[in-house]
Amino acid sequence: MTQRRSMCVKLNYRRTFFIGLAFMSISAFWNVYDSIIPLILKHTFQIGDTLSGVIMALDNILALFMLPLFGALSDRVDTPIGRRMPFVLGGTAVAVAAMVIIPAADNAGNLPVFIGSLLVALVAMSTYRSPAVALMPDVTPKRLRSQANGIINLMGALGGIYSLALISALVPKEGKPDYLPIFACVGAFMVVAVVILFLTVKEKKIANQMRAEEEDQQEAAKPQGGPMDPAVARSFYLILASIFFWFFAYNAVTTAFSKYAQSYLGLAGGGFANSLMLATAAAVVAFIPAGMIAGKIGRKRTIMAGIILLGLCFFIASFFRTFSPVLNILLVLIGFAWAAINVNSYPMVVEMAKGADIGKYTGYYYTASMSAQILTPILSGYFMERVGYGTLFPYATVFMFLALITMSQVRHGDSKAPVPRSKLELLDVD
After folding, report:
1. What is the DSSP letter of 48?
2. Among 161, 186, 216, where does a domain finish?
3. CA angle 27–256–126, rounded 5-degree value
4. What Å distances lie between residue 209 and 88, 144, 213, CA to CA?
5. Which own/partner contact pairs does 81-85 have at CB distance under 8 Å and 24+ positions apart?
6. pLDDT band at 133 (very low <50, low <70, confident <90, very high)
7. Tens digit of each residue's pLDDT (9 = 90 or more) over 334-343
8. Structure letter (DSSP) for residue 412
9. Which of 35, 47, 113, 372 could form a disulfide with 105 if both were Cys (CB 3.0 to 4.6 A apart)?
């Protein structure tokens, strides 16, 4: 009877929505960070693009060390409000307090206070990112986690769109902008989201129930470890190289786009945020079709199409010297292309890791992507500073071409997986 009831269990959409508020608040922060901090570094403190790239890479450097550390710490603590909730509440409180100081330091032109408050905010975000992400699997049955993660990723995108809408509305076209209202609104949004999460999700009670259920339903079979076949290993390292190259291209553009749009394309105020919203919305809309197309033609072909489209869009964008509505069309296509790549790349890695240690190989995937995101703001910033802002899209085009070469040589990990009954599972992007 227990087994039959478990088969009929449906996703608790209400609870998943409230859990997703944590990820929504995290995404809201990162969109403000990626869009506004480069502008402050450039216009207020006259910091060159190379050093600015180093500062913009700090979040990924911290993430390499702090995300695993605080994820593991949250596994070990036990408090009356749960394992993850103390990190989520404490991290949010410190991050929001530091966020208010960042624009105040910008207005005062105080670089030490600005850098100090920025570091505090980044460290605080790193302390609760992993616990916030781990909260969902703690309170969701295994077979429903892909659907739940789809909802959470969708809410993350909405959090990003919220921040970009604020930037578009509140950054003036003339004069020195005061970013305090934007940071204050995002900070208030984060506080409200996390308070609602705390009041609606009783983590400890639900997690204890989930653990009891999972123990009753444990499968006898356990995954077997072992080395990869050499031919599969070759494909695995090639796809890691591809992941490294396309993140090298894509992250360079997303990190620098705000100052590129203002300084090179002449887009005044927060107008660049409208373009970024189009790309974000396009990617979200394309997640489900990208998974369905892969079910028809295979993951590799879908990724290859995304690489070609993304590289072509970057190449065409490199010819624009002023802003044009055509660029918005390109950004929509970039969102579609990125979805085609992102939805299908991690499943290919997992497919190749069958029979091996999947957790270990997943770590390799994130090492490749995060290493690229650490290095590319610095290297692309160097070229923009030394050669000119016109190098940004050609730079991205070159690395997409390298990704095309390495991905074309991948011979394993492809499949025409059946489209899940719940389309939400197609939003379960890494």
Report:
1. -
2. 216
3. 35
4. 21, 15, 6
5. 81/198, 81/203, 81/204, 82/202, 82/203, 82/204, 82/207, 83/131, 83/138, 83/203, 83/204, 83/207, 84/131, 84/132, 84/134, 84/135, 84/138, 84/203, 85/135, 85/198, 85/203
6. confident
7. 999 998 998 8
8. S
9. 113
